[in-house]
Amino acid sequence: MGGRDKPGHDVVEDGMPPRRSAKTEDVPETDRLEGFPHPRETFTLAGQHAALTRAARAIRTGHPPQAWLITGPPGVGKATLAYRIARYMLAYGATAKGPEDLSVPEREPNAIQLTAASHPGVLVLKRGISQSTGKLMGELGVDVVRKLSGFFGMTSGAGGWRIAIVDTADDMNDAAANALLKMLEEPPRNAMLLLLSNVPGRLLPTIRSRCQRLDLRPLEPAVIEHELARLLPDTAASERAALARLSGGSIGMALQLADGDSVMLAKEADRLLDNASVPDIAAILSLADRINRITDGLDTFGNFLQQALANRIRAKAIAGAPHLDRWVEALNKLTESFARSDLLNLDPRQTLLSNAAALGNTARRAGAV
Questions:
Q1: pLDDT class for 8, splitting at 50, 70, 90?
Q2: Which of 253, 252, 306 is nearest to 38 (CA)?
Q3: What contacts 186, CB < 8 A, 6 or more positions away?
Q4: In angstroms, how far apart are the furthest CA atoms of the chain?
Q5: What is the pLDDT of residues 286-303, one digit of tens each?
Q6: For residue 142, what pLDDT is reported?
Q7: In whole angstroms, what is the distance from residue 142 CA to residue 147 CA?
Q8: Is there a contact between 132 and 168 (Cβ–Cβ < 8 Å)?
Q9: What's the first-to-final CA gap in the chain, in angstroms?
Q10: 38-67 pLDDT, tens digit each
Q11: How far apart are CA 145 and CA 162, in angstroms?
């Protein structure tokens, strides 16, 4: 599976040339949680029945959209659903020949190739590792998105479909977003684009309007506990229950929390948001010192803080709260700040203090979140 002598699907990363015929382990997979299956290798989609049913109905009746926008918080199954759709389209096309839940046997030839990252009918676009810094790039650039034109222009594979996955569309810069929009305005035949988005409000309205949405919701704690029992069988049931409560409805987050200092960092992220209007400077400086002693501590804390804020904004939106545009702006600035700190290797104290001050200003103007 996935040997170097097999034709491989392109994984196009910003800052790096497309690689073909690459084994799964040869491809830098920044979205893989160490020790757990990649979404490409995952054949179970937990707790997202509504989105799966909607996608299956459109595909199996022969009228799928040429672009889906798959939204939801990180770790709830967006990529898993995208690869599930891709497997079905490659195996059965836009027909009812396959199962109603879009499942494909693991040993089906297309599934084997897709799992091995070696299917010629699949293109994955994502941020890559910078050749100059060795770190994950801050955005998805236009040169990567332009690869779509050549890919969709190639002769279709045996199944007649070509599938492109953008993971995530939130990472596109303005030029990349405009290039993608042009592709959406002139969609090719027998091609499907799957855009993954954690915060769809960041995307151009014209991109959103040209896609059909599949909204994935935060998972119920019982669903997460069930999955953790399968993925973490050696973890005590009481600890799995605690991870489910802290996860914010995300299996991905629960798995991250199970690792080392992550639970502490997640709790500190919530505490920072709880006290946003009146930041505790001494506690923030103490936290910065602890983060400095943890490998990738600032990056991990930043991820937890961004997800915690996104979850709170989402809950407020459902409740009809006002002034959320200010909190969305704060989330965007928070994301940019931590990306810049990681790129420039800034002192955690400086990063935490500046972001605490920014969150405080937003809380005082827009109310608590």
A1: very low
A2: 252
A3: none
A4: 63
A5: 999 999 888 788 988 998
A6: 92
A7: 9
A8: no
A9: 48
A10: 999 999 999 999 999 999 999 999 999 999
A11: 15
- C-alpha gyration radius of the chain: 21
162-167 and 212-215: which strand pairing? unpaired
| Residues recorded for the chain | 369
pTM value is 0.73
Q: Which amino acid is at 22?
A: A
Identify the residue whose tokens are 């990363």: 13
User: Percent of the chain, pLDDT > 90?
Assistant: 57
